[in-house]
Write a structure and sequence with these properties.
With 392 residues, the protein is α/β, with parallel strands linked by helices. 31% of the residues lie in helices and 23% in strands. The chain has an eight-stranded mixed beta sheet with strand order 12-11-8-13-16-17-19-20, sandwiched between helices. A five-stranded parallel beta sheet has the order 2-1-3-4-5, sandwiched between helices. Helix 3 crosses helix 5. The longest helix has 15 residues. The protein is elongated and about 75 Å long. The protein binds cytidine-5'-triphosphate. The site of cytidine-5'-triphosphate (CTP) has 14 residues, from helix 11 and strand 16.
């Protein structure tokens, strides 16, 4: 399954480092070529010699004094995928902050390969706001987080923070390298549009762009050639082509120039905009402006009219129930409609989770349980891949 794939295994300083030896062995048994980078702290838990014995290769433990002239860039470029297990709070923090203060974080900064992180730490550290922030940043940058799970922790403690089991990490690595979207052109729109009232004010909405960015990063991780047309400042996987726009008009113009096999329209596009925006700044003294509105271009409808149309996924933000959506997939000419009730506290705008209902072309519906937007992106692409008759 991983024959010929080059995997860099980074091990940072947690007690779960002993399980990484087994992960290393599993990767090799699956056919991968494995290089190991061991942080200074990791060597308190497991020795370089152990990994060298499993891989049959020298283990990199420092930026200096070893055979490679530039270990971080050499290894970063060599890898098809980097997996860090365990990823300690300090490792996550360094990567989120772009610090390259030691060998493992330097490698992580020097690679363009997808990165899988398997965090392991005590519950208090995992739940600390600083760690939560770092995880948001890392997910936004397109890194894949596996685990942690609940169970026994170091020193006889128990709770969330235990590293995912090597088998589970291997499964994620295999899935990512399966590249089921290899060569597929995926277009994603994301974020809420801003429609100018005057030079400084706009009509906007609460969409954060998180769902669309998660879909773009997930597709890129799976080998797709992704263009993301977005109003959001959020980051995306390094291989995603980002086109930043502001208004529905700019989004429609950008999308018109992009060919795609799959289009996922996750943006919250304004339906109406001020018909006569002012070039300058409206003054309070002039009194309330007359905000006559006019329709914006329907970006999704324009994509649906292409011949042949791409596999088309629409989003529907409903407020207070999903009764209206049954016939909507067919009406909008989409293959799949992802609907959610944005008034639910755990779904919709700006939160990290979502609770969606999938509506198929024929009107059948499938309710998905509450999950992170990253997880929903993964499931959605599984579904798209399956529907397109592609191999998972
Ligand atoms: N959409 C778009 N361009 C627009 C409006 C909507 O591309 N000008 C896309 C969104 O990206 C999303 C879907 O259409 O994929 C949203 O559809 P829906 O929720 O039905 O919104 P509306 O078409 O505005 O319908 P309504 O306001 O009646 O719910």
């Amino acid at each position: 399954m991983l024959r010929g794939r080059r995997i860099l295994l980074g091990v940072s300083g947690g007690v779960a480092a002993y399980k990484s030896v087994y992960l290393c062995r599993l990767l090799i048994e699956a056919g991968a070529e494995v290089e190991v980078v061991l942080s200074q702290e990791a060597q308190n838990f497991v020795g370089a010699q152990t990994f060298a014995a499993v891989t049959g290769r020298k283990v990199v433990t420092s930026l200096f004094g070893q055979d490679l002239v530039s270990p971080h860039t050499d290894l970063g470029r060599w890898a098809d995928l980097v997996v860090v297990a365990p990823a300690t709070a300090a490792t996550l923090s360094r990567l989120a902050g772009g610090a390259s203060t030691e060998v493992l974080s330097a490698v992580l900064l020097a690679t363009r390969a997808p990165v899988v992180l398997a965090p392991a730490m005590h519950t208090e550290m995992w739940e600390h706001p600083a760690t939560r922030r770092n995880l948001d940043v890392l997910r936004g940058d397109g890194h894949i987080i596996v685990g942690p799970v609940s169970g026994d922790l170091a020193g006889g403690d128990e709770g969330i923070g235990r590293m995912a089991e090597p088998d589970e990490i291997l499964g994620v690595v295999e899935e990512m390298l399966a590249g089921d979207f290899q060569g597929v052109r995926v277009l994603v729109t994301a974020g809420g549009t801003r429609e100018a009232i005057d030079a400084v004010r706009f009509i906007g909405n609460r969409s954060s762009g998180k769902m669309g960015h998660a879909v773009a990063s997930e597709a890129a991780t799976r080998g797709a050639d992704v263009t993301l047309v977005t109003t959001s400042d959020l980051a995306a996987h390094p291989s995603v082509k980002l086109v930043r726009v502001e208004s529905a008009e700019e989004m429609a113009a950008a999308v018109a120039g992009i060919e795609a096999d799959v289009a996922v329209m996750a943006a919250a596009v304004a339906d109406f905009r001020p018909a006569r925006p002012s070039d300058g700044k409206l003054a309070r003294a002039d009194g309330p402006p007359d905000l006559a509105l006019e329709p914006t271009p329907d970006v999704l409808a324009e994509v649906a009219r292409r011949s042949p149309p791409p596999f088309l996924v629409g989003f529907a933000a409903e407020a207070g129930g999903l009764e209206r959506i049954a016939g909507k997939a067919a009406a909008k000419g989409v293959d799949l409609l992802v609907a959610n009730d944005v008034t639910a506290p755990d779904a919709g705008f700006a939160v990290d989770t979502n609770r969606v209902t999938i509506v198929f072309k024929g009107g059948e519906m499938e309710e998905w349980p509450l999950a992170s937007k990253v997880e929903i992106a993964r499931r959605l692409l599984d579904l798209v891949g399956g529907q397109m008759g592609r191999r998972r």
